[in-house]
Specification:
By secondary structure, the chain is of the alpha/beta class. Helix 1 (about 15-30) crosses helix 5 (about 135-160). It has helices at about 15-30, 55-60, 90-100, 105, 135-160, and strands at about 5-10, 35-40, 85, 110. It has a 4-stranded parallel β-sheet with strand order 2-1-3-4. The radius of gyration is 15 Å and the shape is globular. It is built from 5 helices and 4 strands; from the N terminus they run βαβαβααβα. It starts with a strand and ends with a helix.
Length: about 160
């Protein structure tokens, strides 16, 4: 049975597609591509149908990641098919918890940086949209750092299913 992870930010054109791309690469590197499905969405539908922000695409490509993406809005009905919903900041976390139909669904929601022990108490990935390219590079660094711990958590879940 496929383990499903969805990353969520505001418009699904900067942070969440970046996290999706990085985590998909980590999953593939770990040999888990057949067991783990990775996608992303936004809390709003402002950019539905659009590609990722050009700055997101260039930062991903320059660092060896894929950049195919089409923005979409997260729907509450998705909770029943997802194992883990990863919020990129506390605003997304609150929005997703409001959307969760059940307590069980709400327990599926986690902040991305909670998987990075070096993050400390600052668990938000800042929105780079209104800034310069350096914000996108910083976003990538945060996503990469958290992806290691997230992958370990997903591997543990997969091992628990096999037992």
């Amino acid at each position: 049975m496929t383990y499903r992870v969805c990353f969520v930010c505001t418009g699904n054109i900067c942070r969440s597609p970046m996290a999706e791309s990085v985590f998909r690469a980590r999953v593939a590197e770990a040999g888990l591509a057949d067991l783990v499905a990775v996608d992303s969405a936004g809390t709003g539908g402002w950019h539905e149908g659009e590609p990722a922000d050009p700055r997101t695409i260039s930062v991903l490509e320059e660092n060896g990641y894929g950049s195919e993406h089409t923005a979409r809005q997260f729907l509450p009905s998705w909770f029943n098919r997802l194992d883990l919903v990863i919020a990129l900041d506390t605003g997304h976390l609150r929005a997703l918890r409001r959307l969760a139909p059940t307590e069980e669904d709400a327990r599926k929601i986690r902040l991305l940086r909670s998987f990075d022990p070096a993050a400390g108490d600052d668990l938000d990935v800042p929105d780079p949209y209104y800034g310069g390219r350096d914000g996108f590079e910083e976003c990538l660094e945060m996503v990469e750092a958290a992806s290691t711990g997230l992958l370990a958590a997903v591997q543990e879940e997969l091992e628990g299913r096999a037992a």
